[in-house]
Amino acid sequence: DQQVKQNSPSxxxxxxxxxxxNCDYTNSMFDYFLWYKKYPAEGPTFLISISSIKDxxxxxxxxxxxxxxxKHLSLHIVPSQPGDSAxxxxxxxxxxxxFYFGTGTSLTVIP
Amino acid sequence: xxxxxxxxxxxxIEKRQSVAFWCNPISGxxxxxxxxxxxxxxxxxxxxxxxxxxxxxxxxPKDRFSAERxxxxxxxxxIQPAKLEDSAVYLCASSHxxxxxxxxxxxxxxxxx
Lengths: 111, 113
Hints:
The structure holds two protein chains of two kinds. By secondary structure, chain A is mainly β. Chain A has strands spanning 4-5, 10-14, 19-25, 32-38, 45-51, 56-59, 62-67, 72-77, 86-93, 99-101, 105-110. In chain A, strand 6 (56-59) and strand 7 (62-67) form a beta hairpin. Chain B is mainly beta. Chain A binds chain B through residues 4, 6, 32, 34, 36, 41-46, 49, 89, 91, 96-104, and chain B through 4, 33, 35, 40-45, 48, 55-56, 91, 93, 98-99, 101-107.
């Protein structure tokens, strides 16, 4: 049973425009959410996180939004750059400190 | 700081053989994780250590997988005997605590023939 879902396997965006990656979850007990970025043949790299007590967290070009009532979070990248092309994983932590990952969204930023 | 080190990077074995992976976490990180990532899926937690104690191994197939973290630093993950469905990338990650983001190694890609 997939508790964290990323329903878009891929996304293409023009350089300079906004990239919006989406993630849905089913467990209302998740208290911490993260986004990871992964290049081919490398491990995932932590990008940004948000606690369940917040609805927005911003770090430079990256902003994560959390909508607890909809059990939905999104990652906004503005402006998108070619170097942002990678697979992005959404992850969530439950109260037992176990992390659950989505299946990833492959982002391509077109120059 | 040096990242999480894993070896080998690639391993090809035949089914029913055994294989072992090694992980050296970031210095000072008490929490260590092993994940299995099958092609097209997200990482799935196999086992989590806090220092040298197991915190969660509920998804570890214990009839064939084993892991240890002696002295609370390096860790090894073993599969014996391997099955075709074990073909995956095995990722090791570490963090200061279970409340903080994890730092991942580059993984070991295992192919079972």
